[in-house]
Design brief:
four-stranded antiparallel sheet; about 20% strand; binds iron/sulfur cluster; alpha/beta; eight-stranded mixed sheet; 12 strands; 11 helices
Length: about 325
């Protein structure tokens, strides 16, 4: 059994007319996602901006309430949990944000921010809480004198370390890292990625690593899931995705990644994206990628391709390049 099992998860945001509050339709941010996350792995979740990956991350933690489907974490159906039970469950499933500054209370000292969760949940108080916070501060590469400082006194990389410390203080089993290095300089990105890697080994953490940047995901993920317009279109072992991506959308994303070796880039089967991402309020029929896909056939506009297994855990949702397609 996987640590996290997501089945047909949907998160829709209703569109209402401003005057009559009539329900006009839905923005289908997450639209039928089925996904497993194994204990101790890093699953990279990749897609263009607006594809629903951050909404999926927040839906897993019920920071946004899903519309339907199921989520099991450690074998427990978390959509059935009440408010207090879910609050306790979130100690096991934490999140790190892209912009930690926006989520850090500017009027609280860093030591208070990191220890706040311990206080709220009644897990530690007084000197014991202080000791725990100090240990975590040191572990994420901050100094003891940082305890009494305010968030605005820190650099972007240090603020992300504070965000990591705040998640780590609960000793979670899984962390959803939502674009954790996207706002950082490249040299600082490497430091934060190394820190996350060390912490994974030390604390036996499972990560869902959300990013629009395939280069970053390649370095940190055991498996990669590609998301397009609220749906998962390809999942596979990280090496398989980068060496032998099958879905045309995955190949288009890879084609856009700069390659240090120009020959390697020439060898790659390039797929150029056409047009813009359609609105999730009015997704295309059939395969939602078909208006932009250079390989689209008649069936693609009519029938949604299922996410099907093609041996050794590689899943593809494509009529042409899926297991039974003629391009496979
Ligand atoms: Fe392209 Fe058709 Fe495959 Fe969709 S199902 S990705 S439109 S070939």
């Amino acid at each position: 059994m996987a640590l996290l099992e997501i089945r047909d998860l949907r998160t829709y945001f209703p569109i209402r007319s401003p005057l009559l509050s009539r329900h006009l339709g839905d923005v289908r941010a997450v639209d039928g996602v089925t996904l497993d996350v194994e204990d101790g792995e890093t699953l990279g979740l990749v897609g263009e901006s607006g594809c629903g990956k951050s909404t999926l991350g927040r839906s897993i933690l019920r920071l946004i309430e899903p519309t339907g489907g199921s989520i099991e974490f450690e074998g427990q159906n978390i959509l059935a949990l009440g408010y207090a039970e879910m609050r306790d469950m979130r100690r096991r499933m934490q999140i790190i944000f892209q912009d930690p500054y926006a989520s850090l209370n500017p009027r609280m000292r860093v030591g208070e921010i990191i220890g706040e969760g311990l206080r709220i949940h009644g897990l530690a108080s007084g000197p014991e809480r202080y000791d725990v916070v100090m240990r975590i501060l040191n572990r994420v590469g901050l100094r003891e004198d940082h305890y009494d400082r305010y968030p605005h006194e820190f650099s972007g990389g240090q603020r992300q370390r504070i965000g990591i410390a705040r998640a780590l203080v609960f000793q979670p089993r899984m962390i959803i890292a939502d674009e954790p290095v996207s706002a950082l300089d490249v040299s600082i990105q490497a430091q934060i990625l190394n820190l996350l890697d060390e912490l994974q080994s030390e604390f036996k953490l499972t990560y869902i690593f959300i990013s629009h940047d395939l280069r970053v995901v390649e370095h940190v993920s055991h498996r990669v899931a590609i998301m397009y317009l609220g749906k998962i279109v390809e999942v596979g072992d990280s090496k398989a995705i980068y060496a032998d991506a099958r879905h045309p959308y995955t190949r288009a994303l890879l084609s856009a990644v700069p390659m240090p070796d120009p020959d390697a880039k020439n060898k790659r089967d390039r797929v150029l994206l056409q047009g813009d991402v359609p609105s999730p309020a009015n997704p295309p029929s059939g395969c939602s990628f078909h208006p932009r896909c250079p390989f689209a056939e008649k069936i693609c506009a009519e029938v949604e391709p299922p996410l099907e297994q093609d041996g050794d855990g590689h899943l593809i949702a494509c009529h042409v390049f899926g297991p039974d397609g003629k391009g496979a």
